[in-house]
Write a structure and sequence with these properties.
Blueprint (H helix, E strand, L loop, with lengths): L67 H27 L13 H17 L3 H6 L1 H4 L9 H4 L18 H12 L1 E14 L4 E15 L1 H25 L16 H12 L2 E4 H10 L8 H8 L1 E7 L2 E4 L1 H4 L10 H7 L2 H6 L12 H12 L2 H6 L3 H10 L11 E12 L2 E12 L4 E5 L3 E4 L2 E4 L8 H8 L4 H7 L3 H18 L7 E6 L2 E4 L1 H22 L3
Antiparallel strand pairs: 1-2, 2-3, 2-4, 4-5, 6-7, 7-8, 7-11, 8-9, 9-10, 11-12
Helix pairs in contact: 6-7, 7-8, 9-10, 19-20
């Protein structure tokens, strides 16, 4: 079992800035500079002694030389002061001392506008390399607009960086940048209306403004001319990295004139403009005119949902992307969402659990025997909002089941804990399902464990050999037997990398209480699976 306490800020408090020399102290006399606060951490230099602001420094003749030790000390103090000033300025600019909040806004409309503007800037400056390696970091400063209640549900136990899987060459990265940079998105005249959903959720409809996509035909033409040679070289580099060097020059065999066809389509369809007023009218009427694509476009860009966290409004990706409270919400849906019954569920307070291992059992008890409010109370704030708005758990009916459960902590990362399922049983007089030993499932008397995957997957490789590999062999000269051997080695390595002892449920700490996060649990399982796949692929690189 591993345990790591949540991160604590050990930065000593910053004293208030003293008044400048000669400033008045309120009594008509000169103000005195207060003495420095006693250090709360290691002292790397001797602090200067306090002096009165009105004191006159003693003047020394030029010929008088100070002691060498004092000179070193003054230089050290000067350098230390510079370091302190730089640190304070950097901390202020970055919000490191909590003086600034880089994300969120004071009102729902302001936050929705920030999100729209940052999304446009992100489109126009997207780093495809970052997108391939870590999509979350590729979002840039847009991530600062994500509600803290949702951001804290991003699991931190498994990290991923897939930038090295494709062995991308410099030419490929440059070409990707040229292709994406050939298109520009602009947003002008944005207006919106706010529909409150309770006190801390708001649906923001964009009611006006134009969103326009344009293309630089000359830049795109130059980029398309590089596609075939760069792509062929990239495929060669990637296959070679995985020990499958082509025995012949790769030819994509793209149809003749494909570049001209694509350019003609771009010139014909761009610039493309969406009037957000048409989206608002379409939502109200359910009709989007002759442009059949408008319904899907408006569903993607016409609305956002913002939530209030810590007194500021932030984007809620969870609610914006949900079916019940998202981009496709129409008048009838809004009426239901703002109903007193639904709004009342948004204010359900969280249950209190001092230890993370208490949370999963309490959630199971609520699912089995509790009303909807009891179920909501066992979830983190972001998921309480989501479930309340969508009525997701109202359809869950486990009445008639009996349950026993036991959990133990296997990892701690900041304000998250990963919990092993030692035992979780759901039984009725007719059937029973039980999870034991973290990842073993027993159903109808038959037990299957994650560790069983470590047995050779002969059926998988037999199925691969039955595929038609002729086009691949013709294009690369690589035999199917060699490819299947590599796939088998990668699969075996990936399965070996899966650690059943680290499979578990994720709980998060909010306001002193530990609560199970369903979304964090699913995301962590996905990350563990992807990390194992990455390990398998890296193992066959040469």
């Amino acid at each position: 079992m591993t345990s790591e306490e949540p991160g604590q800020d050990h930065t000593p408090p910053v004293p208030a800035a003293p008044q400048a020399a000669g400033a008045q102290d309120g009594t008509g006399g000169p103000a005195q500079i207060p003495p420095p606060l006693p250090p709360s951490g290691p002292v790397w230099f001797e602090p200067p002694q306090p002096i009165a602001a009105a004191a006159t420094p003693e003047l020394h003749p030029i010929a008088t030389q100070p002691r060498r030790g004092w000179t070193r000390r003054r230089i050290g103090l000067g350098l230390a002061a510079i370091v302190v000033v730089v640190a304070l300025v950097a901390g202020f600019v970055t919000g490191g001392f909590g003086l600034l909040n880089p994300g969120g806004a004071a009102s729902p409309a302001e936050e929705a506008t920030k999100v729209a503007q940052k999304s446009v800037r992100l489109f126009n400056s997207l780093s495809l390399k970052n997108l391939l390696s870590n999509p979350l970091t590729a979002a840039g400063d847009l991530t600062m607009e994500i509600a803290p209640s949702e951001a804290r549900l991003e699991p931190g136990f498994t990290t991923l960086d897939n930038a090295d899987l494709l062995a991308l060459t410099t030419d490929s990265l440059d070409l990707l940048g040229e292709l994406s940079g050939s298109f520009t998105l602009s947003l002008d005249g944005l207006t919106s209306e706010v529909i409150p959903v309770g006190d801390e959720i708001a649906l923001v409809n964009f009611t006006g403004g134009t969103l326009t996509v344009t293309a630089d035909a000359e830049r795109l033409t130059a980029a398309l001319a590089k596609v075939e040679p760069v792509t062929e070289a990239q495929l060669t580099a990637t296959l070679t990295r995985y020990g499958l060097p082509p025995t012949k020059a790769i030819d994509l065999n793209l149809p003749s004139g494909w570049q001209d066809d694509l350019l003609n389509q771009v010139k014909t369809s761009l610039p493309y403009t969406v009037n957000l007023a048409d989206c608002a009218a379409g939502r109200a009427s359910g009709r989007y005119g002759d442009r059949v694509e408008m319904a899907s476009i408006c569903a993607a860009i016409g609305q956002v949902v913002v939530v209030k966290d810590g007194g500021r409004w932030y984007l809620s990706p969870l609610l914006t992307g949900s079916l019940g409270l998202g981009a496709g919400t129409g008048p009838q849906d809004v009426t239901e969402l703002t109903s007193p019954e639904r709004v009342a569920l948004l204010t359900v307070p969280a249950a209190q659990h001092a230890n993370p291992t208490e949370a999963p059992g309490a959630l199971m008890k609520a699912l089995l025997h509790g009303e909807e409010r009891a179920k909501l109370a066992e979830l983190p704030l972001a998921e309480r909002r989501y479930v309340a708005a969508t009525s997701m758990l109202s359809q869950v009916d486990l009445s008639g089941f009996q349950s026993t459960s036991r959990f133990s902590e296997i990892g701690r990362k900041g304000q998250q804990a990963k919990l092993r399922i030692d035992q979780l049983a759901l039984t009725t007089p007719e059937t029973s399902v039980e999870i034991t030993d973290g990842s073993c499932i027993t159903m109808d008397g038959t037990t299957s464990c994650l560790s069983d995957l470590k047995r050779p997957a002969a059926d998988l490789y037999a199925a691969l050999s039955m595929l038609d590999w002729a086009p691949f062999e013709d294009a690369t000269g690589i035999s199917n037997d060699k490819v299947i051997h590599k796939i088998q080695a990668a699969t075996d390595a990936a399965i070996a990398a899966l650690d059943p002892s680290q499979i578990g449920v994720v709980a998060v700490q909010e306001d002193g209480s530990w609560l199970v996060s369903l979304s964090a649990t699913v995301a962590e399982l996905q990350k563990q699976l992807l990390a194992a796949v990455r390990t398998g692929l890296i193992s066959i690189q040469e």
